[in-house]
DNA sequence: GAGTTTGAAACT
DNA sequence: CAGTTTCAAACTC
């Protein structure tokens, strides 16, 4: 009976598709892997199962989860990556470019796309994990891993020079290796950034998964922490007994204090992280870098240092970038330790840039510098000096800026610390402060009260869309905005050009929600008129951009020929110019910046990153929804249109980075990647909506 | 560093 | 919901 039924199906199903699938390398690969093999004409179901076999249990579990996490993870990289990306392009450096961008693209795609993407996504992330954790699924994932690696290596310079591809692979390996080494601070950083990934390391996937889910879905990360931890003894030692309570090692897996720390810090604290980044200054960063580097072995120092950077918090990047431009408002974290931890996370990013550049091109100006100038020159023009000055003051005078409450007892939203979900610490100049661990109950109660009044009170003021990058640009040109202020500002006299304006402060344009008067917000006016300034800037950049591309191409060729140290080549080509491309970053960073860092999510609301977040956040926050939708709709058009046009029309940020330039064929190879990313995006587009069932 | 300005948060 | 007050950051001198 069954057979009869099955057979027909199987025949139909298998035979027909089989021919199709067989051709695909994936199928072959799978077939090879699968122990089941061709044994018998398995029912259709089986056949498919085999297909899915790779991803099934492990993948499925993780993928979704990962998608959330990853998006975060990657997102963080975006800014960094891009900068790197560009930088690398500049010189020869295929290395940074290759690895990072690819991963990033993969992530994006993955996040956007569902199943296939998921696998890819997983692969991108899993590779590291899997390799290190033999426990985890083996072959099923391995393939993906390979694919990823291959892509990464192949993609980039691929045609250009094998060496470069190798480098890329090496880079990945290094990352992995570092991770293996895991005890080194540097790796810790890396991992810390990828904290989420770490979870998977735990032998018990289910737990990890659970943890992730909690993390993602609920604002209370502490739950996660609460979850038993499969920990690594070695790591735990270092963990500072900070704060408070729950010192259950949440994810003991975390290698470093920082990472652990971060995890420990529940929703509120987590935010801290986000906010804190901005506060972090060069100085700290440098120190951190040094420390990191120092820890690393001389020979590998560079790599080590670099590695960490790969998986960092975007926030850090964005923040750092922004910081350079704008003084940060938020102060800091809980304690010196915390700060350190943060700095640690930050460090990687910075360090990466710094290290690479420093090592590769010491002569180049500091990373930060470029962004400053390039980033939003116009924007900053007016108050740049002031800001700079201020930031200096804030940065140097005090390790971090804190509140200065006199009457609110730091139990109202007036208090930045409280609003940010962090306890006040020494640096604060507050009086009669109740926002301390000692008064935890009071704090929680007050917080609750406020939340009851306004559930979003502690949510990020600035809501960014899933792809802040994409959206930001989109918004700017077309719609209200991917990123915008939760409630909108109400400025009367500042014209939304000062930090009094929360929109401006948050680096986002004003939206319809704003009731501001005489809005001249450089990030976008309430009326929708975009940044005129930006446009002009973009145009200028456009030219430069093309030139640079040509240059890049040239470099690529050279690198091919040389097929050796790209770094050696770099010297010849000054990064600065390419950095210019990075301009977007800063912008992005700005948009993303300060306030709530998206991916990290805010304590109260499940404000997470992008897509995944959207699904959740949508329930809570409609703005996001809107944004997302807009974006979704917009994207296709954008893609269809010529990249350049898009770039102008849209925001410089993402567009620029991604948009392939029509330039020469060579550039094509490099850009192609980008192009691919887009392609993927296209595919994903349809899928995107599906991700948000809620809609 | 003190004083002023500003707009969000809180209150009525 | 609108108006007013309170508050602390942002800004100026």
TrEMBL record:
Renumbered residue ranges of the record's region Disordered = 1-20, 107-128, 559-578, 599-626, 650-676
Entries under InterPro entries matching the protein: CRC, Tesmin/TSO1-like_CXC, TSO1-like
Q: Where is the CRC domain?
A: 399-524
The alphabetized UniProt keywords are: Developmental protein, Nucleus
Biased composition regions of type Polar residues, renumbered to the chain: 1-18, 602-618
List cellular component terms (GO): nucleus
The molecular function GO annotations come to: DNA-binding transcription factor activity
- Where found in the cell? Nucleus
User: Which family would the database say this protein is a member of?
Assistant: Belongs to the lin-54 family.
Q: What is this protein called?
A: Tesmin/TSO1-like CXC domain
């Amino acid at each position: 009976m069954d057979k009869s039924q099955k057979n027909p199906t199987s025949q139909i199903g298998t035979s027909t598709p089989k021919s199709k699938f067989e051709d695909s390398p994936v199928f072959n690969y799978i077939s090879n892997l699968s122990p089941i093999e061709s044994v018998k004409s398995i029912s259709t179901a089986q056949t498919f199962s085999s297909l899915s076999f790779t991803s099934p249990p492990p993948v499925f579990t993780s993928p979704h989860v990962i998608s959330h996490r990853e998006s975060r993870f990657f997102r963080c990289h975006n800014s960094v990556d891009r900068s790197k990306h560009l930088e690398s392009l500049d010189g020869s450096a295929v290395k940074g470019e290759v690895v990072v961008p690819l991963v990033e693209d993969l992530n994006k795609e993955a996040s956007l796309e569902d199943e296939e993407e998921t696998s890819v996504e997983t692969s991108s992330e899993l590779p590291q994990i899997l390799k290190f954790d033999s426990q985890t699924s083996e072959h099923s994932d391995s393939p993906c891993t390979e694919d990823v690696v291959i892509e990464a290596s192949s993609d980039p310079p691929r045609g250009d020079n094998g060496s470069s591809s190798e480098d890329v692979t090496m880079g990945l390996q290094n990352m992995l290796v570092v991770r293996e080494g895991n005890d080194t601070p540097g790796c810790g950083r890396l991992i810390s950034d990828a904290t989420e990934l770490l979870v998977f390391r735990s032998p018990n996937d289910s737990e990890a998964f659970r943890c992730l889910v909690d993390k993602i879905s609920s604002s209370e990360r502490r739950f996660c922490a609460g979850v038993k931890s499969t920990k690594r003894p070695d790591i735990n030692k270092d963990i500072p007994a900070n704060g408070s309570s729950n010192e259950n090692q949440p994810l003991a897996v975390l290698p470093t204090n920082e990472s652990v720390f971060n995890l420990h810090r529940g929703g509120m604290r987590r935010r801290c992280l986000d906010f804190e980044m901005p506060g972090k200054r060069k100085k700290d960063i440098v120190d951190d870098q040094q420390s990191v580097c120092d820890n690393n072995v001389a020979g590998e120092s560079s790599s080590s240092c670099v590695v960490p950077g790969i998986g960092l918090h975007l926030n850090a990047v964005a923040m750092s970038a922004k910081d350079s431009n704008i003084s940060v408002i938020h102060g800091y974290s809980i304690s010196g330790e915390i700060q350190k931890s943060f700095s640690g996370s930050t460090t990687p990013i910075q360090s990466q840039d710094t290290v690479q550049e420093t090592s590769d091109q010491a002569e180049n100006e500091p990373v930060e510098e470029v962004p400053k100038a390039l980033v939003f020159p116009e924007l900053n023009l007016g108050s740049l000096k002031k800001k700079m000055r201020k930031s200096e003051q804030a940065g140097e005078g005090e390790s971090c800026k804190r509140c200065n409450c006199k009457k609110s007892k730091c139990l109202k939203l007036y208090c930045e610390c409280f609003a940010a979900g962090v306890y006040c610490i020494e640096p604060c100049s507050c009086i009669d402060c109740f926002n301390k661990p000692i008064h935890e109950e009071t704090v929680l109660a007050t917080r609750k009260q406020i939340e009851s009044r306004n559930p979003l009170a502690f949510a990020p003021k600035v809501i960014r869309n899933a792809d802040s990058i994409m959206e930001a640009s989109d918004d700017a040109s077309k719609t209200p905005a991917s990123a915008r202020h939760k409630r909108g500002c109400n400025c009367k006299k500042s014209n939304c050009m000062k930090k009094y304006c929360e929109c401006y402060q948050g680096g986002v344009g004003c939206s319809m929600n704003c009731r501001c008067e005489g809005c001249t917000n450089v990030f976008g006016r309430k009326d929708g008129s975009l940044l005129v300034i930006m446009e002009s800037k973009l145009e200028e950049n456009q030219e430069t951009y093309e030139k640079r591309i040509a240059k890049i191409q040239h470099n690529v060729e050279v690198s091919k020929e040389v097929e050796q140290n790209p770094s050696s080549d770099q010297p010849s080509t000054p990064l600065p110019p390419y950095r210019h491309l990075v301009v977007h970053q800063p912008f992005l960073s700005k948009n993303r910046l300060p306030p709530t860092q998206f991916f990290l999510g805010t304590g109260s609301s499940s404000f997470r990153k992008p897509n995944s977040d959207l699904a959740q956040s949508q329930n809570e926050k409609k703005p996001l929804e809107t944004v997302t939708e807009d974006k979704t709709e917009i994207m296709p058009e954008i893609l269809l249109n010529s990249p350049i046009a898009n770039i102008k029309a849209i925001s410089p940020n993402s567009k620029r980075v991604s948009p392939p330039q029509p330039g020469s064929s060579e550039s094509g190879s490099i850009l192609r990647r980008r192009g691919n990313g887009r392609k993927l995006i296209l595919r994903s587009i349809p899928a995107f909506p599906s991700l948000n069932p809620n809609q």
